Amino acid sequence: MKSQVWIPYVITTVILQVVTTHDALTNQSQYEYYKKDGHYIIGGIFNIYASSKPPCSGGIRSDKLSFIEAMTFVIESINNRSDLLPYIDLGYEIRIDCGNEDKSLWTMLTFVSNKVTAVVGTGRSSTSILAAKVGSVFSVPVVSYYATSDELSDSERFPFFFRTVPPDKFQVKVIVDILQHFNWKYIALFYSLDSYGIHGARQIIRQAEIFDICIATIMPVTIPPSKSEVEDIAEKLEQYDKVSVIVAFSVTDGARAILQAIRNFKRPRTFTFIGSDSWGPESDKLAEFTDLLVGGIFVEFYSELPSTFQEYYRQLPYNQRYASQWYKDKLREIAESENCTEWVTCSVPKVHWNTQQVISAVYAVAYAINASLQVAPQQNSFNVQPIDGRLLRGSLLDVSVPSEGTNNYLRFDENGEVPGKYQIKNWQFKHGEYHLVDIGKWDTLQEVYLLLDEGNIQWGTANGKVPTSLCIEECHPGYIEVPLERKCCWGCQKCNDYAIVVKANDSAQCLDCPLTEWPDRNFTTCVPITPSFLDYSDAIFVLSILGAGFGLVLTILAACGLCYYSEHSLIKASSKELCSINLTGLALICVVVILNLLRPTGATCVVTDLSISTAFCISFAPVLLKVNRIWRIFSLKPGEMLRFTSPKSQVILTTSVIILEVLIVSITMVFAPSAPDLLTPSGRKPHLEIFCRFGYGFLTACVYNSLIIVVCCYYAFRARRVPDNFNESKFIAISVYSTLIVCLAALPVYSTANNVSQKIGALNAPLLVNTYTSLFCLYLPKIYAIHFPSAVQDMSMRSSFERQSSVATSQMRFAGGSDVLQH
Questions:
Q1: Cα 730 from chain centre
Q2: Alpha-carbon radius of gyration of the chain
Q3: Closest CA to 617 of 707, 730, 728
Q4: E-state strands within 495-626
Q5: Strand partners for 40
Q6: Residue 456 and residue 475: Cα distance in Å, rounded?
Q7: 3-class SS at 693?
Q8: What does residue 142 show for φ and ψ, rounded to 5 degrees?
Q9: Alpha-carbon span 100 to 793, nearest angstrom
Q10: Strand partners, 411
Q11: CB-based burial of residue 16 (10 Å sphere; 0-12 exposed, 13-18 middle, 19+ buried)?
């Protein structure tokens, strides 16, 4: 059925080709052939011309002549062997297709009509597709030595197609592995518009998506390329200024186009090429662009040419017995152009780098014929029978072809393909010459596919270092990459000053540090902030020290004055016992002010909590008892008895009030003690301050002390009208009123303060105000009055005289007014 479908198409195509091209091609040398008869004929299709458009143009490439000579050499070697195909002579029929699809189709039909057993060829994927279709129709195995397109991997479409080179899917993996190895994530893809380039580019695009490689621009080109295509390539590459690596999956003519485009740049740029096997190994044919290729990495099939053929080919100019007519013509051309008579001095043809694959293809066919015939030693040449192509195909799938001088074997898989094995080369300029240098290999049979000798690579960059091909800005610490409008390009965005850069799943993001931490220098780790406290030069620190020190000095002087004048009636009337307790409290308050300046710890916070509460209570408890006693004395009704007014009673009551305070503080502190805490500024800064956060015990003590102060205010207000000789209640009122007002003002300041300096100031202010008002209102006037009695007496007499004068004046004015009224 398949043959019935294809035969009309093939015949029609051939007839059209003959009709349209007969006149143009009748004199072309590609219609010549090189043939030798044998029991089984192996056809060979080769292209030895430099260009395929127009067909068979550009002259003969001398290195490709080694394909033909290798085929004839192998067949002659097999014919001389007794262990392979004994009694059988292999023949060959070699034709030239010039890399032209129509010519390849014509040649394949010619082989079918001549009943060849198998065909070795062709050298291009596009021509091999047509040859393989014809071979599938007529059951003729086709073994290519150079066609790599993945389109030919379809064994259902091309069941009789085999190849001794790995398919492009392996080559694509080599290229992607190289891109991955050097972290080239932003590339340009260039490919030729033929089966080889299209399928190769499709595989690269698919693999690039898997491995997160961005293809910035894709540039297809026809073969041969037009001038407008070259200009378009140059324009595209100039737009993508971050691209420094170009993957070129193309034939040589396509590579020439992109190199010409780069040459036309207004501003020269350096690119690193990743060349496929179709043009990379032949990049020496681009002599005018060799300076642009330095640093490029190129892929070619792994090849180990047998030493026997190398020697044969070296001697071929001297012994041309089996040489083809094309080879002889080329030698004649070389001799005439170089005017040389000795071959030693002539530029004789060299071996093409891929000749090994031709040798492997011929041996594969020979071993398959041998397996199909099941040749026995007693057989002779009269028993030779034609071989069914389907049987030969099965033998090719099972054959194992040994490689000369190695332990390796050539085996085909179910799709007629071989494992991937490649050489990787680097285009270098050394000692004034350009040449390819081996830098590694890629082999699917090895545990690690890609092996590179990076020390042997010469890069084309100005600094000689590995080029980078990323459209990513180099972000400084504290920045993350963010996508830009251009495809696959990333810029830098600064994180907050208090954030670190966290990388996860190949991406980075900003992560804010906790309030008590700050990023390190590299913005990769949050480091705890060392909290600070009041500095010695801080104004609050200096004022608190001076205020507490001066207050302590005054308190000591007041205590000394009381002791010195302890027998004075004024001191006795003031209850020196209660005064002693009060002065003790004032001294403790001055000490507490200094304790507040210590760096907070667990111990200092507890001590400060207890000290403030107790000192306040010690200073106000005796004042409360004193003003209460004054009020009770002057509000006493006739016949009533005044109780608890003795010094002993007053001391006991004062002590009771203080002990109750201590008990309350101690009990509540067990459950909610004061402890160090961190004060964070309103805006995120790398600055923290430590302070004592008071617990519920301190708050309970504050409520207790507040009640004492309020009661003091109450009794001071009630006792405001006592006689002048007992006016100490007025001074007490001034003292407690001042302290109460300052406490009320300090409370919101302390609660809303955003730095330790303000908190310490708000905490110390009521303490110092209480100390100074108590000293200046309660003690210093008494000591002054005792120490300077005459001055106080003069002031009292003057005050009394002024009051009497004022009364007399008022009376006189009143009397005078009466006289006036009388008159």
A1: 76
A2: 55
A3: 707
A4: 499-504, 507-512, 517-519, 526-528
A5: 90
A6: 31
A7: strand
A8: -120, 120
A9: 138
A10: 400
A11: exposed
β 90-96/57-60 pair status: unpaired
Reference 534, options 690, 658, 410, 420; nearest CA is: 690
The per-residue pLDDT for range 107-122, each reduced to its tens digit, is 999 999 999 999 998 9
Whole-prediction pTM: 0.63
User: What is residue 537's predicted lDDT score, i.e. its pLDDT?
Assistant: 85
Q: Report the DSSP beta bridge partners of residue 221.
A: 192
Q: Say whether 597 sits in a helix, a strand or coil.
A: coil
| Choice between 748 and 456, residue whose per-residue pLDDT is larger | 456
C-beta separation of 196 from 124 below 8 A: yes
| Structure-token match 């016992």, residue found | 577
Q: Are 358 and 67 contacting, i.e. CB atoms less than 8 angstroms apart?
A: yes
CA angle in degrees (0–180, nearest 5) for 654-658-660: 115
Question: Does residue 574 contact residue 728 with C-beta atoms inside 8 Å?
Answer: yes
Provide the sign of the torsion angle of the four alpha carbons 655, 656, 660, 666, taken in this order.
positive
Distance, in Å, from the CA atom of 131 to the CA atom of 137, rounded to the nearest integer, reads 10
d(CA 425, CA 789): 115
Pairing verdict, β 409-411 and 421-430:
unpaired
First to last CA, the chain: 161
Query: Which residues have a Cβ under 8 Å from the Cβ of 456 and sit 6 or more positions away?
Result: 426, 437, 438, 439
pLDDT above 60: residue 585: yes
Angle subtended at Cα 363 by Cα 360 and Cα 367, rounded to the nearest 5 degrees: 135
Burial (0-12, 13-18, 19+ Cβ within 10 Å), 173: buried
What pLDDT digit, counting tens, does each position of 654-705 carry?
Answer: 888 888 888 888 888 788 888 888 888 777 888 888 888 887 777 888 888 8
Structure tokens at 121: 């060829």
Ramachandran bin of 517, using left for φ above 0, alpha for ψ from -120 to 50, beta for the remaining angles: beta
Report residue 609 as tokens: 């909590």
Q: Which residues pair with 451 in a beta bridge?
A: 441
How many CB atoms lie under 10 A from the CB of residue 511?
15
Q: Give the burial class of 405: count Cβ atoms within 10 A of its Cβ; 0-12 exposed, 13-18 middle, 19 or more buried.
A: exposed
Note the Cα 59 to chain centre separation in Å.
Answer: 54
| Residue 200 C-beta-side C-alpha neighbours within 13 Å | 33
Residue 542 tokens read as 């200096």
CB contact at 8 A, 43 and 93: yes
